[in-house]
């Protein structure tokens, strides 16, 4: 670090903060990209994650800290404790990312296997390392491909075991969370629409297609294809927007300013 | 043998003599024709000269001489004589000169035959005849063809204006144009035909512009027809046959295409008016004129379609107005009857038009179809066309129907009804309503004639396929079987002394799948009837095990003796009504709630029942208070004072409105049908885009109904949830079938 000029030092710091990688990795990546930060990110993300050795004994200790006294699983209390330890709000979306890494089957509980899989994948075997990885996990949400995976994962994770569809309230909560990350101007209208007109559970198809809709159709609906294969609910949503004057002449009128 | 060598001068001289002689003959001068000696002399001279070897070989010079002579003759005599004249006279002169020329060339070719053969063989020169023709073309034709053409066109125009012209002359001139092309039609086509066509165009353009303003549509068409006929005749008389198509097209264009819109849309005599006033002849003419002009014909067909649609809609509107202005139900029903009749008549009328005026042309069939598809899908006073049509059938088929017709007329009517069905898009709705009505007719013995019922089912089967009618046929068969079954039941009763229902009982067993669905109610049967049910069950179990009987009391009829003070009257009532009345054998006076408790019926049903027995025409029960409506606080008593002049009366129970149930049932059926269609399509295609999937489903389903695209979309999503289909990962508009 001492041999680096100030500019380079700053870049290394930035890199480490954003990716959560170690200094050594940061240097490697930056050198490889001739000290261009963006290039360095590309290099870093395209390389397989360097799995640092995780000590299984430490993992056991960690697991035991959180596991429920009566069942061999981490339940709600354990998760709350974990969040506290991590200094992260239990409602924080990063916990969703954690669950995704664990391939958790349902929210508010982790099996031992899921816990182990997740932490090993992230190269975590201590709380310290766990805390360090938090910013990395946040960054994963910025990746388009990963976000889609996490988003689609969220459906299976958030729904009741044995149900095929996701309860509306839960869905709305998840959407609010997810689209706070990935800014979608119509999310509030969507939620209002569902509560006013739909009042039923959300199918997986509708869930996944909504993301595509948010990604590809512009908020003023100028490139929305009414003859397309969008789920029926989304067609209704567009009608709702038009009927209520929210979209007029392909302009999104901002109601928040109209009161 | 020594042949004398003929010198050049001599030879030329001979030649010239021969040519001159012919010229003189043709000019009409006094000149004796060739005698055989002269002829032979000349012929032989030329012959010998051709055989002469160099230095006496003068064939080339002879040839040249010939050429010069022809040229000279043309230049000095032929051309000036033509030029000297004008117009028709010029044409006559031309024709004469041309004829002469051809004769001359023929004679000369014969005379100088060997020259012809020799030269052409040796040196590939144009034949004498060809040379002669070429000269005529280059010297005469080139010079005069413009004037000739103009003269011809002037004559043609004169003839068009009605004057007599010399047709033979024209034919000859035009033959000349063809012949002068020497094997090609280009002289005729470029120098004459093209200009003639242009002139024709201009001529008819002028005429049409005037006529279109002054004449009515029929008159204009008459004139056009005349003109086109005359032009065709013209070809026969003097134009070359190859001109026919082009000429017709040009004339047609100016007369019929340029002003087509003005013509068809003429305010007081245009196509719409002709249709309105049933001017069949004029319309036939219109068809004939436009049958070769696709654009025009389409316009006529469109007007035809609009006209029929408007008339149909007007009929619907009439019925709608009449229905809404009259308060009572009965009158409204009549209007709807009348409407169907009128639509049938409308259809008959315009089918005739299509066959007669429009010669069965596909465009007009289509126009008719499309018009009726609009008309036959209108709603009248809340009833869909499917329902209206079933009501109509009901009236034709039932005993008390308003349609009193002969058997033949009935057959015809049923045929036409089935034809109309083809236009209705919600055929499944028709089938469902039909089944409901059929059920009523069959079960309440209201059908006029079994044969008629079967007849219409046969016709429906022919038109719509076996699947359409299978349930209905099942229903009719059920009744036949039921009669047999009843006979067996009666035998059973006779031979089984233990089996005593106590009442005369007739049971009709219906096969569940065929009949419309009926709610079986939890009616508490009167004791007398309970026994009947038991006895019948006993009998039925001797016939078949493994079948479950569900009793539909709402469809039953009961004959009850009412022992009134004045006299006993037999009452024909429904089973439900009977159940109510029998309660009064045990109690004098009952409240609404008591009746309710004893019978275990719904409020809706009970109100209807009590109303029919206490507030309608026949008041078998008296009600406290004596109001016209039933309320839950009412009390009822047996009305012993009731009487009627008849000994047997029927107490009608107005039927529940089935419409909502039918629509709901059909809605459910459609969901299944859509589901099945999607699966069928995807199973065979494996992978398919959304739009295509939707359109194939629509096509498959259109036999029975017009599916709502949204409904199809919903079913697709349902199938995705049920894991029959999935979206393609790359392209969300593609679906894959999951085995």
From TrEMBL, chain A:
GO cellular component, one term: ubiquitin ligase complex
Xref: InterPro entries: DCN-prot, DCN1-like_PONY, PONY_dom, UBA-like_sf
Domain called DCUN1: residue spans: 54-242
GO molecular function: cullin family protein binding; ubiquitin conjugating enzyme binding; ubiquitin-like protein binding
Keywords: Ubl conjugation pathway
Domain of life, source organism: Eukaryota
One of the protein's GO biological processes: protein neddylation
Pfam name, any one: UBA_4
PANTHER family with a match to the protein in the record: DEFECTIVE IN CULLIN NEDDYLATION PROTEIN, RP42 RELATED
UniProt function note: Neddylation of cullins play an essential role in the regulation of SCF-type complexes activity.
Protein name (Swiss-Prot/TrEMBL): Defective in cullin neddylation protein
Lineage summary: Eukaryota, Viridiplantae, Streptophyta, Embryophyta, Tracheophyta
Automatic annotation (TrEMBL), chain B:
Coiled coil, from the record: none
SUPFAM superfamilies for the chain: Cullin homology domain, Cullin repeat-like, Winged helix' DNA-binding domain
SMART domains according to UniProt: CULLIN, Cullin_Nedd8
MF terms (GO), sorted A to Z: ubiquitin protein ligase binding
A GO biological process held by the record: ubiquitin-dependent protein catabolic process
Keywords: Isopeptide bond, Ubl conjugation, Ubl conjugation pathway
The Cullin family profile domain, residue ranges: 384-614
InterPro entries for the chain: Cullin, Cullin-like_AB, Cullin_CS, Cullin_homology, Cullin_homology_sf, Cullin_N, Cullin_neddylation_domain, Cullin_repeat-like_dom_sf
GO annotations of cellular component type: cullin-RING ubiquitin ligase complex
Pfam families linked to this entry: Cullin, Cullin_AB, Cullin_Nedd8
Similarity field: Belongs to the cullin family.
Protein name: Cullin-1
Organism of provenance: Theobroma cacao
């Amino acid at each position: 670090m001492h041999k680096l000029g100030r500019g380079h030092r700053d870049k290394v710091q930035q890199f480490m903060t954003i990716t959560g990688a170690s200094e050594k990795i940061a240097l490697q990546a930056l050198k490889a990209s001739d000290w261009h930060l963006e290039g360095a990110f590309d290099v870093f993300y395209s390389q397989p994650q360097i799995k640092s050795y995780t000590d299984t004994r430490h993992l056991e200790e960690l697991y035991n800290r959180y596991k429920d006294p009566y069942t061999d699983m981490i339940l709600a209390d354990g998760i709350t404790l974990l969040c506290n330890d991590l200094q992260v709000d239990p409602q924080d979306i990063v916990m969703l990312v954690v669950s995704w890494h664990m391939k958790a089957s349902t929210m508010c509980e982790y099996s031992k296997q899921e816990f182990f899989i997740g932490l090993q994948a992230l190269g975590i075997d201590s709380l310290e390392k766990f805390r360090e990885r938090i910013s990395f996990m946040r960054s994963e949400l910025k990746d388009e491909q990963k976000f889609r995976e996490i988003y689609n994962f969220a459906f299976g994770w958030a729904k009741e075991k044995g149900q095929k569809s996701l309860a509306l309230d839960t869905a709305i909560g998840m959407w609010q969370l997810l689209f706070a990350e990935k800014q979608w101007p119509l999310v509030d209208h969507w939620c209002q629409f569902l509560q006013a007109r739909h009042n039923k559970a959300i199918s997986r198809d509708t869930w996944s297609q909504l993301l595509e809709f948010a990604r590809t159709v512009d908020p003023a609906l100028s490139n929305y294809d009414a003859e397309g294969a969008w789920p029926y609910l989304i067609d209704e949503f567009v009608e709702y927007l038009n009927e209520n004057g929210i979209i007029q002449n392909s302009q999104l009128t901002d109601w928040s300013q109209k009161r | 043998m020594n042949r004398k060598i003929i010198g050049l001068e001599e030879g030329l001289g001979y030649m010239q003599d021969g040519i001159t002689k012919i010229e003189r003959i043709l000019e009409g001068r006094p000149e004796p024709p060739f005698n055989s000696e002269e002829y032979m002399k000349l012929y032989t001279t030329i012959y010998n000269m051709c055989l002469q070897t160099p230095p006496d070989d003068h064939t080339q010079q002879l040839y040249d001489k010939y050429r010069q002579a022809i040229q000279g003759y043309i230049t000095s005599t032929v051309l000036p004589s033509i030029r000297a004249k004008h117009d028709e006279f010029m044409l006559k002169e031309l024709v004469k000169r041309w004829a002469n020329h051809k004769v001359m060339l023929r004679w000369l070719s014969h005379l100088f035959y060997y020259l012809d053969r020799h030269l052409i063989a040796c040196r590939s020169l144009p034949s004498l005849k060809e040379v002669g023709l070429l000269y005529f073309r280059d010297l005469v034709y080139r010079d005069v063809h413009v004037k000739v053409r103009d003269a011809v066109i002037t004559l043609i125009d004169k003839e068009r204006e009605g004057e007599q012209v010399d047709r033979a002359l024209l034919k000859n001139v035009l033959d000349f144009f063809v012949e002068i092309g020497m094997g090609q039609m280009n002289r005729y086509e470029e120098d004459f035909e093209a200009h003639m066509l242009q002139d024709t165009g201009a001529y008819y353009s002028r005429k049409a512009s005037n006529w279109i303003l002054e004449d009515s549509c029929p008159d204009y068409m008459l004139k056009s027809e005349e003109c086109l006929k005359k032009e065709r005749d013209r070809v026969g008389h003097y134009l070359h046959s190859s001109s026919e198509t082009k000429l017709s097209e040009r004339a047609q264009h100016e007369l019929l295409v340029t002003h087509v819109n003005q013509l068809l849309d003429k305010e007081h005599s245009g196509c719409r008016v002709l249709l309105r006033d049933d001017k069949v002849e004029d319309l036939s003419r219109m068809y004939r004129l436009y049958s070769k002009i696709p654009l025009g014909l389409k316009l006529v067909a469109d007007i035809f379609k609009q006209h029929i649609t408007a008339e149909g809609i007007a009929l619907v509107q009439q019925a709608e107005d009449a229905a809404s202005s009259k308060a009572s139900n009965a009158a409204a029903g009549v209007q709807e009857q009348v409407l169907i009749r009128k639509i049938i008549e409308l259809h008959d009328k315009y089918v005739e038009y299509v066959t007669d005026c429009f010669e069965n042309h596909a465009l007009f069939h289509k126009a008719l179809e499309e018009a009726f598809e609009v008309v036959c899908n209108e709603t009248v006073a809340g009833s869909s066309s499917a329902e209206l049509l079933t009501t109509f059938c009901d009236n034709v088929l039932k005993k008390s129907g308003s349609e009193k017709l002969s058997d033949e007329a009935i057959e015809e009517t049923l045929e036409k009804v089935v034809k109309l069905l083809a236009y209705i898009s919600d055929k499944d709705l028709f089938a469902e309503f039909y089944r409901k009505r059929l059920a009523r007719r069959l079960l309440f013995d209201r059908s006029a004639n079994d044969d008629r019922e079967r007849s219409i089912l046969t016709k429906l089967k022919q038109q719509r396929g076996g699947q359409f009618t299978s349930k209905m046929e099942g229903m009719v068969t059920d009744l036949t079987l039921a009669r047999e079954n009843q006979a067996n039941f009666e035998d059973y009763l006779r031979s089984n002394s233990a089996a005593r229902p106590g009442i005369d009982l007739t049971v009709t067993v219906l096969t569940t799948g065929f009949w419309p669905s009926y709610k079986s109610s939890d009616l508490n049967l009167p004791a007398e009837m309970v026994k009947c049910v038991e006895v019948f069950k006993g009998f039925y179990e001797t016939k078949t095990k493994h079948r479950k009987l569900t009793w539909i009391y709402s469809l039953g009829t009961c004959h009850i003796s009412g022992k009134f003070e004045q006299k006993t009257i037999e009452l024909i009532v429904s089973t439900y009504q009977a159940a109510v009345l029998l309660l009064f054998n045990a109690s004098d006076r009952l409240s609404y709630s008591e009746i309710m408790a004893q019978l275990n019926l719904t409020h809706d049903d009970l109100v209807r029942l009590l109303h029919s027995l206490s507030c309608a025409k026949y008041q078998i029960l008296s009600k406290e208070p004596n109001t016209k409506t039933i309320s839950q606080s009412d009390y009822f008593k047996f009305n012993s004072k009731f009487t009627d002049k008849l000994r047997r009366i029927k107490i009608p129970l107005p039927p529940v409105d089935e419409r909502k149930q039918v629509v709901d049932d059909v809605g459910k059926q459609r969901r299944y049908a859509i589901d099945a269609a999607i699966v069928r399509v995807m199973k065979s295609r494996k992978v398919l885009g959304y739009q295509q999937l939707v359109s194939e489903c629509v096509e498959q389903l259109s036999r029975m109904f017009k599916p709502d695209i949204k409904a199809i979309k919903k079913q697709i999503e349902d199938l995705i949830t049920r894991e029959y289909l999935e979206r393609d990962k790359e392209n969300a508009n593609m679906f894959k079938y999951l085995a």
